[in-house]
């Protein structure tokens, strides 16, 4: 009847999106077939084309059957041929609206709109308008604002202070210092080596004149180059033209080359802030800043999306706190003057690891010397990390009752900032043996994405726990007290 | 140092419940071990390493049971709670001890639960859920549980009105 209730199809380029997503799911099968093609078998070529044909047909059917309507109070999504499904989302229930733009969307001014609700089951309620005209985001926002008028997206950007963009050389640096990439590539390489025929190695050996050493060094060098190249590529795909800005009380973060994503985060949704100083990046005088956010972030699990929400992927060390203050003014973060708490209690950090590790090394030594050497090297690294942890662990309580906990996690010194109102529970623990030495642990529990998360300090003195309780936690009590009497 | 203890103890009859639970757990673990060992024995395989593993398994079960059972009187003293005007505080553990503070304004909902042993002693378990965590008081008399539940719900509503 009315225009609003007419079901609309997505833009035809949605077909391509569906196709790419399916290919991502089936990528292993593709690799298998492609490897077999080398042997010149006809059936693998047939299988490959059949798979492609099947996936294209599936994408077309999806495009044909997925429709949506926008009305003044809700969005409805329809899908299915035989088993028809309708999802209805009222504007009031929407938590965040995110947009994503693939490179082939650009010429048509098309975007993908992702809608997140506060539903408890992650992934379920998240709706996606796969390919729609850019103007739709304004329509949705205007409908939304009737119910929540404080969310005005059309405000002017306040000042240049509220904008951040990632420099070209920082994207390169991010890629080259990404330690997780090294792990991923090593597993990928070991997979590749499984597929390379032995003949290849023997030919290579004869080529370099049977010098095994050169071969090994060469392979390692190649491995390093591949790691660097892949990591750079990933970093470029993700952080190309990275921008963050603040309009009033909302942060807008956009990034990505082929798949451009835009995310809007109201300041009030930020649960905590992490300032990460990874060892390698620290050498270049750089930190990265991550936000802890509640709600179903990226439950879709796209392969090339960052699970972490970065505010500044890389920022120079001397700018980090001033910039943070410009972006998140309500926390009033200062450079923390941390109090180290466990510098002279290294033993507590080592003892259980040694108790478990040394017998294992001894057993390994009994069977095989090489394994024992590798095992003891791993143990030494673990113990060194534990030692570093004991030296780094610290805290600070700032104005505004902001607690900063400094920790060492996986080659990174992390400063975690949290306000009492974002803490779901505060706990202190100890054991029958530690209690006599006035030593215990403290933990704050908060919600990160969908999951409860802990952050705390191990083996700290009881007087430190008490100080945190008084200055950080009791202050919260006073505040609710005040509210209560109003 | 003297470890701080909270105000309210749990009902003494909870010890009985713990003893029964401890015995039942032991029986189930022993039965499971006996069945597995029986299967090995049937196939005439219960020797060498397997025999050692079986011995270690039964040994560990017994030690855990004894620690659990004999320490019930001590443990009981370390399970406490306190309801202040602002928050609810939980204390638990004898060997590994912890105290947890949960402000009323974080509480999402409250649950009560009653297993067969608890029902016999007319006790209830009270579970408090926040957006991220669950906390429980192991056993309370039914009247007390209802009272705390109502009190807490009232306070949750009060703090909620002013929001965060």
UniProtKB/TrEMBL annotation, chain A:
Keywords from the named record: Membrane, Transmembrane, Transmembrane helix
Keyword Amino-acid biosynthesis recorded: no
Domain YdbS-like PH: 63-131, 248-298
InterPro entries documented for this protein: UCP026631, YdbS-like_PH
Signal peptide: none
Record Pfam families: bPH_2 (PF03703)
Membrane spanning stretches: 12-35, 41-61, 171-193, 213-233, 346-365, 371-387
Protein name, entry field: Uncharacterized membrane protein YdbT, contains bPH2 (Pleckstrin homology) domain
TrEMBL record, chain B:
Signal peptide interval: none
Keyword Membrane annotated: yes
Coiled-coil segments on the chain, per record: none
YdbS-like PH domain boundaries: 76-151
Keywords: Membrane, Transmembrane, Transmembrane helix
Organism domain of life: Bacteria
TM stretches of this protein: 21-43, 49-71
Protein name: YdbS-like PH domain-containing protein
């Amino acid at each position: 009847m009315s225009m609003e209730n007419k079901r609309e199809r997505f833009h035809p380029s949605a077909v391509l999106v569906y196709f790419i997503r399916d290919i991502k799911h089936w990528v292993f099968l593709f690799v298998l077939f492609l490897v077999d093609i080398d042997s010149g078998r006809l059936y693998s070529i047939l299988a490959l084309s059949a798979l492609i044909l099947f996936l294209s047909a599936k994408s077309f059917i999806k495009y044909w059957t997925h429709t949506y309507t926008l009305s003044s109070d809700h969005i409805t999504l329809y899908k299915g041929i035989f088993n028809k499904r309708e999802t209805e989302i009222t504007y009031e229930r929407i938590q965040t609206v995110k947009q994503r733009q693939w490179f082939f969307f650009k010429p048509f001014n098309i975007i993908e709109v992702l809608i997140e609700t506060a539903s408890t089951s992650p992934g379920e309620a998240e709706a996606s308008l796969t390919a729609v005209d850019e103007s739709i985001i304004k329509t949705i926002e205007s409908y939304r604002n009737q119910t929540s008028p404080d969310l005005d997206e059309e405000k002017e950007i306040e000042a240049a202070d509220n904008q951040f963009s990632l420099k070209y050389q920082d994207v390169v640096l991010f890629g080259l210092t990404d330690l997780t990439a090294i792990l991923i590539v090593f597993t990928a390489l070991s997979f590749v080596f499984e597929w390379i025929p032995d003949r290849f190695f023997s030919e290579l050996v004869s080529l370099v004149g049977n010098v095994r050493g050169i071969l090994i060094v060469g392979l390692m060098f190649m491995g390093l180059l591949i790691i660097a190249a892949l990591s750079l590529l990933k970093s470029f795909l993700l952080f190309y033209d990275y921008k963050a800005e603040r309009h009033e009380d909302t942060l807008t973060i956009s990034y990505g080359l082929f798949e451009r994503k835009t995310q809007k985060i109201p300041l009030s949704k930020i649960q905590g802030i992490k300032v990460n100083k990874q060892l390698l990046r620290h050498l270049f005088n750089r930190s990265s800043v991550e936000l802890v956010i509640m709600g179903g972030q990226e439950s879709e699990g796209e392969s090339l999306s960052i699970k972490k929400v970065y505010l500044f992927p890389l920022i120079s060390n001397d700018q980090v706190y001033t910039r943070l203050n410009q972006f998140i003014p309500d926390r009033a973060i200062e450079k923390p003057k941390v109090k180290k708490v466990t510098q002279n209690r290294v033993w507590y950090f080592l003892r259980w690891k040694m108790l478990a590790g040394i017998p294992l090394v001894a057993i390994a030594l009994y069977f095989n010397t090489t394994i024992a050497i590798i095992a003891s090297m791993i143990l030494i690294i673990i113990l060194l990390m534990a030692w570093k942890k004991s030296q780094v662990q610290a805290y600070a309580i700032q104005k505004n009752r902001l607690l900063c906990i400094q920790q060492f996690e996986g080659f990174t010194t992390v400063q975690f900032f949290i306000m009492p109102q974002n803490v779901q529970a505060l706990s202190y623990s100890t054991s029958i043996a530690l209690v006599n030495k006035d030593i215990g642990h403290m933990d704050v529990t908060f919600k990160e994405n969908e999951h409860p998360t802990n952050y705390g300090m191990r083996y700290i003195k009881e007087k430190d726990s008490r100080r945190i309780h008084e200055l950080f936690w009791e202050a919260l009590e006073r505040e609710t007290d005040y509210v209560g009497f109003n | 140092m003297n470890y701080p203890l909270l105000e309210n103890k749990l009902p003494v009859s909870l010890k009985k419940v713990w003893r029964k639970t401890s015995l039942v757990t032991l029986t189930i673990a022993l039965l499971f071990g006996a069945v597995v060992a029986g299967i090995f024995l049937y196939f005439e395989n219960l020797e060498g390493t397997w025999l050692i593993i079986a011995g270690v398994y039964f040994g560990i079960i017994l030690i855990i049971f004894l620690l659990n059972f004999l320490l019930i009187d001590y443990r009981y003293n370390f399970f406490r709670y306190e309801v202040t005007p602002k928050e609810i505080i939980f204390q638990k553990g004898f060997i590994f001890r912890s105290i947890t503070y949960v402000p009323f304004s974080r509480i999402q909902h409250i649950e009560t639960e009653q297993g067969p042993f608890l029902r016999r002693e007319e006790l209830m378990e009270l579970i408090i859920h926040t957006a991220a965590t669950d906390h429980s008081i192991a056993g309370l008399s039914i009247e007390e549980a209802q009272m705390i539940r109502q009190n807490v719900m009232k306070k949750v509503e009060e703090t909620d009105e002013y929001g965060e």
